[in-house]
Design goal:
Strand content: under 5%
Shape: elongated
Distance between the termini: 35 Å
Helix content: 55-70%
Structural class: mainly alpha
Strand order of the largest sheet: 1-2
Radius of gyration: 32 Å
Largest sheet: 2 strands, parallel
Number of strands: 6
Number of helices: 29
Amino acid sequence: MGMNVSRQVDLTENEYLQRFVGKTHVPAYDDDFWNNFLQYHINLPTNSQEQLSLDLRLEALCQSFISHNLHTGNFGSLINVFLLKVSELLTLSDTESNVHIWHAFNALFIIRCLVKYMIETGSEYQLLQHFEALPVQAADNDTTPSEPYSAGTSQTAIPMDVRAVEETKAAVAKLVDGTKFETFLEALVNIIVVIPVKEFTYHLHLEAVNCMIILLSVSLFSQQTMEKSTIYRTIYRCQHANTLMSALLHFLSRMSQAPQTMFGFGTGGSFVFGIAESLWSILTFARKQPDILTAHDLPTAFREHYPLANQSLLLILILTNHHATKDNPYRISLFGCSDSQDSPKEDPATFKIDFSSLYNTLCRIVTIDQATLLLYLLLYRNQRFQKYVMAQQNLQQLVIPILQTLYNAPDSTSHHIYMSLIVLLILSEDDNFNKSVHQIMLKNITWYTERSISEISLGGLLILVVIRTIQYNMLKMRDKYLHTNCLAALANMSGQFQSLHPYVAQRLVSLFETLAKKHARLDQQLKQPNGPNGEPDVSIPIGGGGLTSEDMLQDLSVLEEVLRMVLEILNSCLSHQLVYCPNLVYTLLYKRNVFEAFRSHSAFQDIIQNIDMVVGFFSSRLQRVQEQRGELGVNEVLEVISKGASQWSSDRLRKFPDLKFKYVEEDAPEEFFIPYVWTLVCKAGCVHFNSETIKGVSAEIVC
């Protein structure tokens, strides 16, 4: 519109916008109008407040558009102009394409705004009506072209070259062979997969990805199943699913930073000097942008500095989690990709990508919710990627950020905590992982503040953080499944515990002690005669915690399961790795009394016997040495334990099955993942929705 669209400009006064949303048909071949209409500068919204402000300023124009477009067909004209711009981009050189990219971007931004408004306020059917609407008196029926619009106040008609008009009309007719929506979607895909990402194309790619997210957001604002959605059916039968998924994953993997200028403006000889380069500000920064690893707020820094990577990641999650139980080409594509460095003789893959680059990127951003979810999908569903990760020598780069997420649980959502734990559980299913984490030594873990530890193995740190998560869950979340997954990860690792730090051994035994005390309190409260016949009265809260006896019986049952698991973890370590865990034996000797109350309990008796046998063996050796030397210090006790361990035989212990737990996704994953993914899109994305009109996919979660 030949101007800068600042936050103060009254858009309703713009004459080009007025004509576009008005009662008059604007044909696609009216170059004079479209060149003026698409020549504008805008500060794009970067947060929900700015989006709300823009929506309010556009609302009157959008309402006028809705009222008139089914008669004027101007939206279809804009789509045709956009399609022409995109088709021409594929044949132009970089220098020639600058203006086309600028105009294509501006056209797509207007399309995105209108589509977003129609999705939020209307139905999918109405949206598609506007896509396909033709002018009531189609210009194609005239023998001469319509007069173009002149921006001057005199409204003087400017003659057009009739041959050029006819050529343009023929090109448009060729482009829209089929439904206009399908052709538009194909153009979006072409932008993403065909046009190379360069500094001056970055924001066009970003806008294409955003527009696809907007189209898929129809599920947020509709209560119909997506199997009946024309938009979803069209997107999910796309023949280019592999190339689209490949492009999106490459956008993430490369993690290109948003350029400080748009479309390469500011380079020598560029036309931009004539149109006020300083007005452009889409996600750009005047100062040098810091690496996101040093940023305090990582999710915000990732969204603002790497918007194409962020939005591509969110689009990947949307495409792969809808239709999860059906033939989803995007899901098949993501789970079937392979490492571009693999031998060509490997089994056929849906596409190839450098796993090293993807792995390093995920390590950098894995504390971000949406990155954890993608990592989960790849580890759980893509066997090639899982195999690659397990073979890495620098596993600490991936595991430590996940542990930090769990350590800072109050700052994360319950979903993020849950997915982080599932990732650890999947990793713990691999014996090589369980062995290698105890061989990787870490120094000065400053973010772990419970205790200053100068040196600890990665495995020891993992145990500490998981135990802390169990205790946090007991106090705050009270989620049985969280307990189960925490303990399953520790159980998988227990047969490979080695060189446990004294503090790690203490925390393992203290976990049992804490749970044992809670068990004793609950058991005592349940035995209190509250009813008239000395039985617990289930109709009133007991124990001072607002819990009924039924609640407490359930809690007691869960506690006994957890206690049993902790005992099995201790037993597994003693059965397989006793010689390598003197600090654990030392702690068991020191804390032997915590097991006293469970020796006669039927649920624990068998496994307590093994622990008692270990404690008894080393106690007798210590007693003999003490009789000879007198009181022993810590180092002397450890020396006795180490010597005794060399003479210990695990055959003395009762055999139990090896602890092996495997994560299995539930039968209806969509019920969990689709609301979760759209919550991430709404909270972490560059596109902001009107939460008041959301009514699909569990609106209460998304909002």
